[in-house]
Amino acid sequence: MIALYRPGSSVLHRAPAGFKLAILAVAALALSLYPHDAVSIAVSLVAVLALYGLGGIPLRVALAEAWRLRWIIVALAVALVLFVSPLAAWISTGRVVTILLLASLLTLTTRMTNLVAVLQRILLPLRRFGLDAAVVALTISLTITTVPVIAGFAERVREAERARDVRLGVRAVVPLLVLALRHADDVGDALVARGLG
Questions:
Q1: Segments forming the whole domain that contains residue 178
Q2: Are residues 157 and 132 in the same domain?
């Protein structure tokens, strides 16, 4: 799950957005390509949790991020245990959780405007192929900021279920979809009003 920026004055908050994005890319590549064992995955997870501490982000925030990913974690782990092995499940699931926690830490310690500016600079050379770097960067930033909004809508639907003592099950998708579409309309209207739509 992608979290939103939390103001702070830690070393990670002060580090340039481009540097943090590069570190995330290198770490994700290393975690994906390097042949890990059970111990190195555990060390990677502990290192990421230590980075949360370095960024002044409470451990409960990292745990909340992992909790939001619980269904992805469970589905991946169960599939790997059944079809490969428990060790493969631990290593692969640990890789995914580590990368997602790192991505979450990036958004927790980096203002979205700084991240968008870096993305624009990275995408600038693609202008010669007809790609508008500003539009792509804006799309990525909207995607990043919308994920927690949709998660908030899902929580609102769950709270409404609990308040009414009803269990909608799969039908809970309908109110969630309505809220998401209404939000998309509002964002579209705001972009059009600013001449971006």
A1: 126-197
A2: yes
- Contacts of 109-112 with C-beta under 8 Å, sequence gap 24+, read 109/5, 109/6, 109/8, 109/10, 109/12, 109/13, 109/15, 109/20, 109/55, 109/57, 110/5, 110/13, 110/17, 110/20, 111/5, 111/17, 112/4, 112/5, 112/141, 112/144, 112/145
pLDDT digits (tens, 9 = 90+) for 62-88: 888 888 777 778 888 999 999 999 999
Give, for 170, the enclosing helix (H) or strand (E).
none
pLDDT in tens, 123-143: 888 888 888 887 777 777 777
Alpha carbons 84 and 78: distance in angstroms, whole number: 10
Q: Residue 151: which of 3, 10, 29 has the closest Cα?
A: 3
pTM across the whole model? 0.73
CA atoms in the 13 A half-sphere facing the CB of 43: 6
Residues 85, 6: one domain? yes
Matching residue, tokens 């770490």 = 27
Q: How far apart are CA 146 and CA 184, in angstroms?
A: 9
Please say whether the beta carbons of 38 and 89 come within 8 A. Answer: no
pLDDT above 90 covers a percentage of the chain that reads: 27
